[in-house]
Model the fold of this input.
Amino acid sequence: MKRSVENIVASLRTFEGAGFPVRRPFPTQRLEDFDPFLLLDEMGPVDNAPGEAQGAPDHPHRGFETVTYLLSGAMEHRDSAGNSGKLTPGDVQWMTAGAGVVHSEMPSAEMMRDGGRLHGIQLWVNLPAKEKMRKPRYQDTASARIPVAEADGVWVKVIAGESMGERAVIETQTPILYLHVRMKAGARFTQSVPDSYNLFAYVLGGHGRFDQKREAEDGAAVLYRNDGGEVEIQAITDLDFLLLGGLPIG
Ligand code: MN
Done:
C-alpha cells in the first residue's frame, strides 16, 4: 500500500537567534509538533552583505536532539563544555543534547566578515523519557562521508535510515529516516517506510505530486497518513525536498 497525504501545511516565516530569517512548518499554532519531531526550520536562504550575517549566540538545549544540515555558507559551533566544530555545505551535525548543552551557532568568521549566502536546515528530534538526561553527544559528519544514491533522475543523500541501497553512517537514538532528495522534472521516487513511522516531506524547491492526487511546492510540509509501507513521489518540475520519518515516542 502506498501512503496517502493527510494534510499540507504552509510554513510560517519568522526570525530566529539574533535575527536570521527562517521558514518553519512546525511548531506553529496549526501544527504543534510531529512526533518524534519537535521543530523544523529552514534557515534562509539569506544573502548577507559583509558584516551582516546573524547567528544564534549562546543558548541552552536539553532533553532532545538538534540536527543541523548546512546547504550553503559556513557555520561554527561552540559549547559550554569546550566542544567546537565547523560546518560547510553538505555537512551534518547531529547533537544529542541529553542532560543539557549551552552553545552558540554562528556564521564562520569569514562569513561574518565577507558576507555570502547562508542556507541550512535545523531539525529537533525528541528523546524518550529515559534518554532525556543522557550525556551529550556530537556526531559531526562531513558531506563526503554521507552516502548518496543516484539513478533515473533521482539524487538521494541518506542522512539517516536507508534509501536506494545506501545506508546512513550517522547513528540515531530512535529509529529515524532523514533523506534529502533532488529529482528531475518527470522523475519518480519510491521509498519504503516502516508502517509504524510518522512521515512528512518538506519542499525546499519546485513542485511535486506527493501521492495519487495531492501536489505541493516550495515551503510546504506534506504530512502522510500511516496507511502504507511506502511512499511514491513524482516531480512535476525539478524538485528538491526532505523526507523525514520516525517512530513516534508518544
Ligand atoms: Mn541551538
